Amino acid sequence: MTLTTEATVPATERAATTGVRATARIAAATRGGTTTLPVLDGDGPFELRRLRSRGTEARVCVVGAMSAPLGGDRLRIEATAQQGAALHITSAAATLALRGPTPEPATYAVHLTVEDNAELHWLPKPLICAAGSNLRQTWTIDLAPTARLVLREEQILGRTGEASGCVTTRLTVRRDGSTLLDQQAAYGPGAPGWDGPAVLAHHRATGQLLIVDPDFEHNPLEVQLIGDAPEDGQAVLTPLAGPAALVTAIAPDGNRLRHLLATAQGTPHRLGPPGSAPKRRRSGG
Prior knowledge:
Blueprint: H1 11-18, E1 21-31, E2 34-41, E3 46-54, E4 57-64, E5 74-81, E6 86-91, E7 95-97, E8 106-114, E9 119-122, E10 127-129, E11 134-143, E12 148-157, E13 166-175, E14 178-187, E15 205-212, E16 224-226, E17 234-239, E18 244-251, H2 254-265
Parallel strand pairs: 1-5, 4-6, 5-8, 6-9, 7-10, 8-11, 9-12, 10-12, 11-13
Antiparallel strand pairs: 1-2, 3-4, 12-15, 13-14, 15-18, 16-17, 17-18
């Protein structure tokens, strides 16, 4: 655990008053036709475990080693898929954001870098925003021109029978130095209209699936609405101004949300079967 506060304050008091500061780092590289993990450095609440490889893909599971994020925590994960590597990151359980010992919001930053001819799957379990929690979550993603990405994020606003916590999320994706996507959303007490008919209405689960694949430049996607009954949740598949597709979904609960996202990924629009990315096409030798 890394706590970055005034050295004159005992460590136990620092953790209680200002929260945990922790950064976990993952790097994937190719060696001998397969992907290795030269960097796998857990920190604070992040315990990183190697999973069995699947083909040439290296797989990592993020395991929660302590309750986090709490108010005042500053958490960060950095992951890089180096040239030609294939990296899959998941989590062992849902992330539970809770009220902390300080009214300050917790921050959870994810920075992903995918180099040329590499691919990265970021497919963790959902984030649950418990009543009283206050979280600011950001994804910053840098992609090379031939990189591929599959990113899924799911948010459950409140545990069963309780009110939602506060959560603000921002997703920024850059491809070859140019912005591909930059969006922000806020939910919970204090966020204008978040539970009104223009946003979530009665739903308490929301999420999205972002797929970036250079093949989409030659095979453009079409807009599609997924889900017949609004009361059961719906998703929309939208092509972006680049080789990418964004699926945005809302649902009454986490199970229905996951079903909508999986259905969207399994449509005939070449997004592949649920849980997988579009097939990689290698050029050259």
